[in-house]
């Protein structure tokens, strides 16, 4: 009887252990399923593009931003920054007249061509783009273009040289999947003595331009004076022609009518009688009436207080 009871208790214990092990296994499987489920998705951030690898081989290189599915432990998704990036470098160069350009600072803006991204990854590698493509080409092309111009021209035509470098970089890098959007020469400097000579030449050119402007101003003033003199001469000629015409008209009229001169005298008379009329031998001199009256009264007499008439003799 006792032996039978012991066997039963042993069987119950084994069953309990099996039950615990089963539920533990279920729990482990559940956790693994959850882990695998969450590892099936990768988030690609905005401004990036997803590249999917299957056992190290690129199977997709155009995964858009958001949640993307992949098979855990078999496939992997990596992000590649497709936003515009900046590459800067400092170097030196030589102009066509062997002047040294010190502290030449260059800056280039670029981004990856999405259609050629997988090729870039296969042939170069995203992490090697700068060292394998940008470092050798940007400095080389910049030095080549700067070497085509004289130092003085480089200062005056900096934007043109900059644009030439930009076009050369586009032509060189775009076939490799690098889209160049902008290029700038941020800084360049020459030997101090050369910079002083350029400055002196610029000042001399400015002074020459001022003198040219003054000369042009004087020439314009002279032209205006000539124009004014010509205008005055034309005006005098017009007046002279008018006077000549008037004299000719009077002469023609006199030839037709001798009495025309009397008509002109009458029209031009101001109403005042002349002071002397007649010949030089016996002129008639007109005197002022009030002066004559006073003289007559004073010389030939007048009436006194008694009413008697007196004369000067008296």
Short recap of the structure:
Helix content is 54%, strand content 24%. With 314 residues, the protein is α+β, with helices and mostly antiparallel strands.
Key structural traits:
three-stranded antiparallel β-sheet; 4 domains; Tetrahydropterin Synthase, Chain A; 314 residues; disordered C terminus; alpha+beta; elongated
Please describe what this structure looks like:
With 314 residues, the chain is of the alpha+beta class. The protein has four domains: 59 residues, no CATH class; 107 residues, Tetrahydropterin Synthase, Chain A (2-Layer Sandwich), CATH 3.30.479.30; 74 residues; 42 residues, no CATH class. It has eight helices and twelve strands. The strands form five sheets. It has a three-stranded antiparallel β-sheet, with helices on one face. A three-stranded antiparallel β-sheet has the order 6-7-8, with helices on one face.
